[in-house]
């Protein structure tokens, strides 16, 4: 099945490029509200599911045992910029677990923003694992390992007790069986398992509403949701889609990007979860898709509309900063979203 074109890129009056993709919107009972494209095809969710991967940290009691606050829990769900606020919080999380940055197995990464990279260069230093956009998630894994009383070394391996706990939670939320043949290595070296978009959408509907979850997991999901929407700057950072959208929507939505054009979201007021993927892996198109989906699903005020429009229809600029075109949803995007799935 060929997925439909969902985003187009213009230059002047002409369309220069197209992005195909798929979108799944599902309620917590698994009922499809909207399915665009092949939503049954397996995709690697990458970092879009970090909030689900953090559930064992909270429901086990490890987060309380380590006295992690909301900002630190949000960082455990983050793909952050590597700004000072992120690096310092990850360091504190490790200290609370009695560990140093040497315990991190995610690898080093340069910060996303030039100004943060420049600080490292001016100090004649190199980036470390704390700068890795996944350092908060990894600090959470290490904290869980410490409270479980299992070795911290090798916590990124599929059969380590921490990763087994994460896999178990993912199987319960997606309803999928995650076997070794579906497993790949994420950029930060942990296992990533491919499942259908519709499975991830249902998982996020459950995450956002608590429906279908046992009492302890529902409490853990609510706590992580609230942590992320309360401290959205920790989930991504300056000039990032996830932070900007969660900040302006003030608790109404949770959104999380992943590599290779994946996005997931929870919209509790509608009882829905969203999962989408841009086929060619382009973040620019995935952001446009998610912004357009939220505009279709929600009644938005002027401030919310302004932020969504900035991501739904960003300008294509010349090197001089003048407008050359735009990235936008295709003209019949709303019609595709309105298709009956019954």
Task: Put the structure in a nutshell.
This protein has 342 residues and is α+β, with helices and mostly antiparallel strands.
Strand content: 15-25%
Return residue spans where pLDDT drops below 50 for at least 5 consecutive residues.
none
Q: Which structural class best describes the helix and strand composition?
A: alpha+beta
Order of helices and strands: EEEEHHHHHHHHEEEHHHHEEEHHEEH
What is the CATH architecture annotation? 3-Layer(aba) Sandwich
CATH T-level fold name: Beta-lactamase
Give the count of helical stretches: 15
User: Would you count the extended β strands for me?
Assistant: 12
Radius of gyration: 19 Å
CATH top level is Alpha Beta
Q: Mind summarizing the main beta sheet?
A: 8 strands, antiparallel
Q: Residue-averaged pLDDT, rounded?
A: 96
Could you say which overall geometry the principal axes of the C-alpha atoms support? Answer: globular
Helix-residue proportion: 40-55%
Count up the domains: 1
Distance linking N and C termini:
20 Å
How would you characterize the overall build of this protein?
- This protein is α+β, with helices and mostly antiparallel strands.
- The chain has one domain: Beta-lactamase (3-Layer(aba) Sandwich).
- Helices cover 42% and strands 19% of the residues.
- A hairpin with a 4-residue loop joins β2 and β3.
- The longest helix has 16 residues.
- The model has no long low-confidence stretch (mean pLDDT 96).
Task: Show the helix and strand layout.
Elements: E1 5-11, E2 14-27, E3 32-36, E4 42-43, H1 50-53, H2 55-59, H3 62-65, H4 70-76, H5 84-96, H6 114-122, H7 135-148, H8 161-174, E5 183-185, E6 191-193, E7 195-196, H9 197-209, H10 215-230, H11 232-235, H12 241-249, E8 254-258, E9 262-267, E10 272-278, H13 283-297, H14 302-312, E11 315-317, E12 323-329, H15 333-337
Antiparallel strand pairs: 1-2, 1-12, 2-3, 2-10, 4-7, 5-6, 8-9, 9-10, 11-12
Helix pairs in contact: 4-7, 4-10, 5-7, 9-10, 12-14, 13-14
């Amino acid at each position: 099945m060929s997925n439909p074109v969902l985003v187009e890129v213009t230059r002047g009056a002409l369309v220069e490029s197209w992005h195909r993709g798929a979108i799944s919107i599902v309620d917590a009972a698994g009922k499809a509200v909207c399915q665009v494209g092949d939503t049954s095809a397996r995709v690697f969710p990458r970092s879009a599911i970090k909030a689900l991967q953090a559930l064992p940290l909270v429901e086990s009691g490890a987060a309380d045992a380590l006295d992690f606050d909301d900002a630190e829990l949000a960082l455990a769900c983050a793909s952050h910029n590597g700004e000072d606020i992120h690096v310092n919080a990850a360091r504190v999380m490790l200290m609370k677990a009695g560990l140093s940055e040497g315990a991190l197995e995610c690898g080093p990464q340069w910060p996303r923003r030039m100004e943060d990279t420049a600080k490292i260069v001016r100090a004649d230093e190199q980036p470390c694992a704390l700068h890795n956009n996944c350092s908060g998630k990894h600090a959470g894994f290490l904290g869980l390992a410490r409270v479980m009383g299992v070795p911290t070394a090798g916590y990124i391996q599929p059969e380590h007790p921490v990763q087994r706990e994460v896999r178990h939670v993912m199987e319960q939320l997606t309803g999928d069986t995650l076997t070794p043949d579906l497993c790949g290595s994420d950029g930060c070296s942990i296992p990533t398992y491919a499942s259908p978009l519709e499975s991830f959408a249902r998982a996020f509907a459950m995450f956002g509403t608590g429906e279908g979850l046992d009492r302890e997991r529902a409490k853990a999901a609510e706590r992580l949701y609230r942590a992320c929407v309360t401290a959205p700057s920790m989930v991504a950072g300056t000039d990032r889609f996830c932070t900007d959208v969660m900040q302006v929507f003030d608790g109404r939505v949770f959104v999380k990007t992943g590599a290779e054009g994946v996005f997931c979201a929870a919209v509790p007021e509608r009882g829905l979860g969203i999962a989408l993927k841009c086929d060619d892996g382009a973040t620019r198109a995935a952001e446009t898709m998610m912004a357009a989906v939220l505009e279709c699903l929600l009644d938005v005020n002027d401030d919310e509309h302004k932020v969504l429009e900035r991501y739904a229809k960003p300008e294509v600029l010349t090197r001089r900063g003048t407008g050359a075109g735009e990235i936008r949803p295709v003209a019949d995007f709303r019609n595709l979203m309105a298709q009956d799935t019954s």
